[in-house]
Amino acid sequence: MGLVSKDDGWRLSDWLWQRIEPLLLVRPAHPLGCHRPRVPDRDALDAILLVFRRGMQWNALNATGVCSSSSAHRRFLEWEQAGVFHEIWRQGLLDYDQVVGIDWAWLACDGAMTKAPLGGARTGPNLTDRGKRGAKCSLLCEAGGVSLGLVHDGANRHDSKLLAAMLDSLPIARPEPTAEHPQGLCLDGGYAYPWLYELAAGRGYSPTSVAAARNSSLNEPSRDGRPGVGSSKPATPGSTATVPS
Q: pTM score > 0.90 for this model?
């Protein structure tokens, strides 16, 4: 009996499992037919998602009763190398776009550094953590906060070096921006270089600084129709980009 009960409400729902199960690898039967029974894929995925959500160590799974840490970590490596999680992300974005709609009018990107003592080659010294090994995750989000792009590198990698890869990492097709429907891209100080603004503009985005985007957001109505709190005329993604000198 583990520490996690079966009715705590955090496990995969039946409808979500029905969508994910066809994406998982089918393991061939053991040639001798006497191999130890494989942990069910659903239990392994429940354990993997528990680690992701809680930030716990893999070995802590052994106390939960959900799945052993070795089985969950081995299954995670198999599925990650096969692109399973990327496909789950891609299909999730397509479903979200169909039901809710991705808001391409305003996008924003930024990076965050985390500890990664066992992260391997794709880590680097974190200058904000006494040079300890860490990782940087650069994320591109749409106006509603849904993740559209993701790049991972060492903690010592500057944000400016990751922008091109992040803009190119979208797992779904991006609609072509037009004069009527431009796609604004909010960039903070880590991207405050003219050549990065030119890079973003070359990909069809309308880049602007955080300060300009913040002033604009004060005047624009929210998604539920509430008016902005500002008094001046709001800027639009298609307006002239605020390029740092």
A: no
